[in-house]
Amino acid sequence: MIRGIYTAAAGMAAEMARQDVLANNLANVNTDGFKQDLAVFKTRADKTIYRVESAGGARGGVPNVEKMGELSTGVYLDSVNTQFEQGILRQTDEPLDLAIEGEGYLVIQGPGGEELLTRGGSFTRNAQGLLVDPNGRPLLGKDGPITLSGKGEIHISNDGVVRQGTKNLGTLRLVNVDRPNEALEKRGDVAWSLKGNATPQPAQTAQLRQGYLEGSNVNPIRAMVEMIAVQRSYESSQKMITAQDETLGKAVNDLGRV
Amino acid sequence: MLGALWSAATGMKAQQVNIDVTSNNLANVNTPGFKKSRAEFQDLIYHTAAEAGAPVNTGSRTPVGSQVGMGVRSVAIARSYAQGDFIQTENPYDIGIEGDGFFQVQLGDGTISYTRDGSFKVDANGTLVTTEGYILQPNINVPSNSRNVTVTPEGIVTASIDGQVQQLGQLQLVRFVNPAGLTSTGHNLFKPTDASGDPQTFTPGEAGSSTRLLAGSLEGSNVRIVEEMVNLIIAQRAYEANSKAISTSDEMLGQANSLKR
To answer: Is the ipTM of this complex over 0.90?
Structure first.
């Protein structure tokens, strides 16, 4: 009986965590280069339930223990997986907007000099002409950061070659990682850091699109439907608790009166 | 759970900024030399509930961790210097800039600001000034007996005075390494910042520059109404979606509270 209350409470706690993830997805429904997260649940380990009958009769004092079956003890948030599917490309015609088509990432330099991967494609120049993201983190080319001058049109080819006028300023690094969910860790600011010994490889299929931005891949319809599911399943767990609470109440308060 | 409430609240706040920026663009759809802005967002830091690669009780390691995000923030409001359309006015003192660059104007307090609004006038002293009376730099003086004032694409101002064509001056422009770093001070004016770099003076049409001046035309606003309308719809719906996340979280919290009778 009391075990059931804990099982239902676990259900409520897990749905709360799922709602946290959903709310973050919805908050970033308009964040360019954002990839949505998916909360994955797992059932807690099953427990084997035994029926213990009172001793006596032919068995002479040894209690009769009979296996009844397996009982699950609820659910928990196992992992949060990022879904890396392509977001929709939006035309902006800004020369320093870069969208990635296919599996790949641009490399930016974090404040501590570490390499971060990103798909957020809105770049700008700083006062020194360095190509940077909105946080001022330099975008890395194969030979380090790229410096633009104030004049001349900027052309960035699909494979990342940056030209201003007729001058070749370098080639952007376009990389990919195997099993991104295991190799990457979200750092906020639409950037991922590399985990452990993960090493980025040159991207095979990815192509850059200048003058486009990749929108968030959050699907608001799916998020809304999922939120309804979260709320209702949370509600059912809550009803389970109330029902068991009432039954317990009967046992505690009313049984004694009979 | 409170995480969900705050995440959704950051989402509403970000979309509010989005609508503020879009509204300002729409309000300036007819402002000469106006450059549209757009709000840019990034996700906030993540709360790591379970580290990926952490040992689990069975002796294996989790391949994927649990990182729950905290919402969104508005990271930049970036101005687009895309060329605006030219509006032909036939007024010789209306000068549009085709290409990059800004006019320099001197404000009343002696400081210099920069503008792409080329609707100049002649003041009582014959000096070329903006609509608000700020003096174009370098000074161009138009004598009162001038006829047929013309501005060449290279910025040379000429007029016919007493039947003779005379050169009144040379217009100069200014460019910045990072024009997106300029700060907008209203009145179609920009001021340089540490992010924009220092102003570099140049003459339109000089070697290596594709900038030309177009007299008798004004550069209109580069706001595109359709784009802004679509943006408005997206911002409103995103705002709505986040408000739903808040009301759902609130109802869930209410249900938790109703557990205890």
So the answer is: no
